[in-house]
Amino acid sequence: MTSPRQPDSSQFSSTAPTDDASAPRTRTALVLGGGGSTGNAWLIGVIAGLADVGVDVTRSDVIIGTSAGSTAAAQITGTSPAELLATILSDASQHRPASSGPTGGRPATGTVVDQMARTGRIIADAADAPDLRRRLSAAALDLDAASDGEWSARWRVMVAARLPNPRWPERTMLITALDARTGAAVVFDRHSGVALVDAVAASTSSGVPYRVGDDRYLDGGYRRNENADLAAGFDRVVVLSPFGGRSRYPLEWGMHLAVQVAELRAGGSRVETIFPDGAAEHLFGVNAMDPSLRPPAARAGYEQGRNLGERLTGFWQAAREGGVG
What we know:
By secondary structure, the chain is an alpha/beta fold. Helices cover 39% and strands 12% of the residues.
């Protein structure tokens, strides 16, 4: 099996195709951050709303997905955002979480709070971001040792049921995760030798690590919740962050979205960030794993996407038409 790559953003900056090698072409990136079950629904809603007003961000040259954003990335490359949105809105009983809890089931609010308390203690004890990832990985391996060994198989079935197409798209899509054996961040793509469902399952495994062969992987949000820095070198970047760019980690660790955006802009990228409206914030946070809130989260995202059409039309359409200004 080909190993996933380390997340050196420079290796992805030239992957976008060009129509004419003699003429510069604006390269675009769509970044989909983590945000649990409701975050996944909100992401789908925003993308569908934008598409309805003529802004098709699914045609970006690279799509970067983390945690619930990895599920959304795989979904929008497998079928239309409109169909995904309709499924969420028409079947409110379809309560499928977009990220795992420590038991791999349907986490209740209490389980989410327990998970946040557990990781909060690890964050408090960590000296820096690399130390945090090592500690999170060690704790996850302890959970793995205490599990029945069947969790990954059950989680794979749940993730596979949400993907409209089990195959990697031909376009460039990057799925982030953490190597639970070392704490190192990794990136999966269609050349990694890992099935798409396994990449998404790994990126959404926040408690017990997900097994791929002899390897163990954790949620990609433990590196950065958006991993927007992987879009370095792309001319225009749209970042959708269900958690509003916030992070539970100390600012000096450089894991907040504001730091990532500053890095991108310093490298010459033009960046637009999209966060949930204030009126929808109650749908996230400790409520992010409540599947009954997926329909309202999707509706909120859809309306927000439609309302953002004017703001993003010039930004995105100029890029799609080949302009660099």
